[in-house]
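Two entries, shown back to back:
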Amino acid sequence: MTTQTVTSAVAQQDSSPAALVRKYRTDFATVLPSHIKPETWLRIATGALRRSSQLAHAAEKNPTSLLVALLDAARKGLEPGTEQYYLVPRKTKRGPEVLGITGYQGEVELMYRAGAVSSVKVEGVREHDTFAYNPGEHDRPVHEINWRANRGDLVLAYAYAYAKMRDGATSNVSVLSADDIAVILSKAEGADSPFSPWQWNPKAMWLKSAAHQLAKWVPTSAERVWQPDGPPLEAPPATPVTLPTVEDVVDAEVVEDWPTTPADTADSEQ
C-alpha cells in the first residue's frame, strides 16, 4: 500500500464535524462577505467545534443542522461559536442537532457595516436604576446608574443608534420590558436547552432582543458597504448555494445521550 493510498484512506475515514467544515469550505467562501477572509472564518468555526464536546456531538449526529447554522453565519459574515453568532447544541424529537443564533454583538456589527450609524447603544436597565424615556419628549433614553449600589434584577432593555444624518437625528428607540422579553423567550427556538445562551447568559439575550428590534429601523448589511474616510463600497450580488442533504454528508444516528455538562459551552458574561 502506497503512502498516497494510506493518506486517501485516512481522509475518507475522517467524518468528524471539523472535517465536514473543511469539506464544504468552498461553499462557505462563496457566500461570505468580501471583507471576511475565508480561512480565518473556517479556523473560527472548527475551533468552536473543538472547544465544545456537546457541540461536536450534536454536529456529528446531525451534520446537516451544523451546515445550516454555519451557512447562515457565513451569509451574515459573523463568527460562529462566538458572541456574534452562537452555535447551540440541543435535543429534539429527532435527536441532537445544532441551532444557530445571531448574538447581540452580531446584531450590532451588521448595523455598523451598513454605514448609516455612527454609534449604537444597547443597554439593560435594572430595578434600582433611574430610567426615563417618553417618545416625543426625549430623543433618547435618560439612564442613570449608581455603580456603588446593588442595581437589582434586569427589568428593561433598550437600544438606540445615532444615524449619520445631516440634521443629527436619532433613530427610533427600542425599549423592551420584562414582559416583552418573556414573550420573546417563549417563542425562541431552542431556548429551553441548557446549552442555549438564554439559559447561561440571559443578559446577552436581553440585549440581543433590543438590538434585533432596533434593526427594524436602522439599516443593516452583511457586506461592509461603508468605510471610514472613503467612498461607499458596492456590495457584490448574492450567490445562491445549494445545501447538501443528510445523504450527501454522513448517516446520522439519533441518540439521546450527551457527553458532558453545559459548562463546556458557557462563556463568561460580558
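entry 2 starts here
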Amino acid sequence: MKNFAIKTPDAEIRTALQQKIDGLTKPLGSLGRLEELALQIGWIQQTLTPSLDRPYNIVFAGDHGVAEEKVSLSPKEVTRQMVDNFLKGGAGISFLCRQHGFRLRVVDAGVDAELPAADGLIDLKIRRGTRNFVDTAAMTREEMELAVERGASVAAMCRDDGCNVISFGEMGIGNTSASSMWMTCLTGTPLEQCVGAGSGLGSAGVRRKCHVLRQALDGYAGDRSVEDVMRWFGGYEMVMAVGAILQAAELGMVILVDGFIMTNCMLAASKLYPEVLNYAVFAHRGDESGHALLLDAMGAKPLLDLGLRLGEGTGAVCAYPIVESAVRMLAEMASFGDAGVTKYF
C-alpha cells in the first residue's frame, strides 16, 4: 500500500503560540476551545499567524454490496440520484458550502451506475459497487490499494490549488453498516453498540441490520489487520477518504472530521499512521448510534452537537466558522501591550 510521510509538527513553536494567546486582551483561557484550536492550527502551520485558505469539501461516493441485505432504508439508486443532486447544488452540503465559501467536489469512487461527465465530478471509479461482505471480502487487496492512491491524489489536487483546510464527506447506501464493522473491529467495541439507524431504520430494521452484520463478522476469514478490515468491510468511498486523509496530513493540511463514517475513516487512518490525529479537528458529535462511543474511544472532543446524521461533510462545514474564529483571534485581536490595556489577571 502507498506509504505516507506524516510528521508530527515541531513542538518548539507551541510555547510562543501559547504566550501570544495568553497575551491577548482577555482573561487567561477565557476563549476556551478557540484558544485550543488556535494553538493546534498554529502548530500545524508552524506560524504565529495561521491562515485558512481555499477550503474544499470532497464528497466520495460509492455503492456497497451489503445493501443487497436490506440493511438500509434507502434503495441503492439513491447514491446515483444524490450525486446528481450534489452537482446541481440542491443537497444539504451544497448550501453549506455556498454559505461558508467551500469548493465542493464529488468523486465517483464506486457508484453502481455510469455517471456522465459534469462540472464538479471527478471520475475515479474502481468498480460499480463493492461485493457483499456477508459472503466475501468487499474488495480485493489491489482495489483497496488503488482506492488509497486515488483518494490521496484528490487531496494533493486540492493542495495544489492553494487549499490548506479540507473536509471530507461521503455518499453511499450501506456505508453506516461498513463503518459499524470498522468500528467494532478496530476499537473492540461490541458490534451491537456500533450499529444504528443509518438513514432512518426503525427498531426492527436496526435489529435486522445487526443480525446481518453479526453474520458477516462471524464469517470473517481475514487476519484483522487494519488493511484487511478496510478491504473486507469497507466501501471504495471510505477507503479513498482514508487515502485523502493521509495525504492531507502529509501535506500539512488542517482536516475537518465529519460524522460517523468519516470518523471511522479517521480511525482507520490513525491506526495506520497515529500522527494523522495531530491534523484532525473533530467537527461534531453525530446522532448516529455509535458515534459518541467512537469519539470517546479516540479521545476526540467534537466542536458541535447538533443532532446531525446526514454525512456529506455537513457537520464539518457547519463547524468551519468556529475554526475560522480561532484563526482570526490570533490575527486580529490586540495584545495588552499593543492596546495599552493593563494586564488584569
